[in-house]
# Entry
Amino acid sequence: MSKVSSLRIWTPRILSIVFVLFLMMFSLDVFEPGLSAKDIAIGLFMHNIPALALLAVVVISWKHEIVGGVVFILAGIAYITWVLTSSRFEGNIWAPSLIIGGPAFVIGVLFILNWIKKKQTKNS
# Structure
């Protein structure tokens, strides 16, 4: 396996894991003085539902890149659409929406490129 081939295969996988960890980082705001362990556990779980769903997609995508490609692209588009249409966000909303939606979209494209290359190699 060449370096380019190895890089092509591992890049979306590593980026997707880093992305899920990045999303999980936002759940750390549940740690507040006075909360019980049960409240913190429930808060962590609730905050991490989207990240856990994407983690399941990463596991499936390890073998089936098309799943990761489609889901990550849709997740990125859905998040950007939600931010742009939500009344909770004011001012310049493009930058914050692209911080989360952009990497998801790029990871999805990388998974699809892997899937296409694997399909081409299989047919050759």
